[in-house]
Amino acid sequence: MQIQLKQLCLQYDCEGRKSDVLQDIDLQIGRGEFIGIMGRTGCGKTSLVQLMAGLLTPTSGQVLIDGEDINSRHYDKTILRGKLGYVFQYPEYQLFETTVYRDVAFALKYSKLSKKEVEARVRQALEDMGFDFAAIREESPLALSGGEKRRVAIAGVLAAQPEILILDEPIAGLDPQARDAFLKLLKKLHAQGTTILMISHNADALADCAHRLIVINDGKKALDGTVEEVFSHEEVLSQMHLDVSFASRMSKKLALPHSVTYEAFVQNLKAKLGGDAQ
After folding, report:
1. Where are the chain's structural domains?
2. Which of 45, 156, 265, 274 is the most buried (most CB within 10 A)?
3. Residue 39 · residue 217 · CB < 8 Å
């Protein structure tokens, strides 16, 4: 087991009043899973992944990575930093170096990699994010467009080649072409063994990439299952002000076998039309 959450709770103290952000969260996340996390704004999903990343300390409960409690006083947080990469909701705000190259290479500063190995990592990460390495490397990251800044910031996380990748709304603000390319990259990383947890309001993107969905509602785990299982609860999700994928909606309207991806929907539609034609 790679990540385990046990009775995880988080409270904030606001003017003497305790406010529950997360309550009694139990989760087990296996090595190599691709998990989507859904929930309306303010439900606690960002706090959940920040607890996993060691950026917040729980009020009670445990976060175990490979069986070790990351909040134990004896736990070496540098181990966690070496295993886990975190892409914030607005990663472009993390940019601070004078050039794109220096910004992407910053995560490798203490990696003990050779200069040649660092350059290879930076080149690969920038090319994976759709950049021409030679053209972009000496540019100021602060002079780039909003979408380009986001892609550079994500490249900075990918350059470290983390075993666990946590992304908070990574495709927000990307144009359709950049979004499709990034989702294709996530599938590639997952196929190579990276564990991925992605928060997104984009149900179609989650249906296309994730194999498991966790829905957070009012600080509690509301649903947890395969994408097909979770999206079959359309009315429950609607009550939480959440949507299902286009394919899932249309499958129901056209009385087709339930499918969550566009490709599966088209195949089912063709089969139905072919059967009707006979």
Report:
1. 3-270
2. 156
3. yes
pTM of the predicted protein model: 0.89
pLDDT at 2 over 50: yes
- Please identify which residue in the block is written with the tokens 């990575």: 65
d(CA 191, CA 231): 23
What residue spans of 15-145 are helical by DSSP H?
45-52, 77-83, 100-105, 115-128, 133-136
3-class SS of residue 132 = coil
Q: For domain 3-270, say whether CATH 2.40.30.170 is its number.
A: no
What is the spatial distance between Cα 180 and Cα 273, in angstroms, rounded to a whole number? 29
**How far apart, in whole angstroms, are the C-alpha atoms of residue 257 and residue 273?**
13
> How far, in Å, CA of 88 to CA of 168, rounded?
5
188-208 confidence digits (pLDDT tens): 999 999 999 999 999 999 999
Place of tokens 């976060």: 63
> In 3-state terms, what secondary structure has residue 90?
coil
**Six token digits for residue 106:** 């910053």
Q: Which two tokens stand for residue 40?
A: 């309306």
Eight-class DSSP state of 256: P
CA 252 from centre of chain: 28
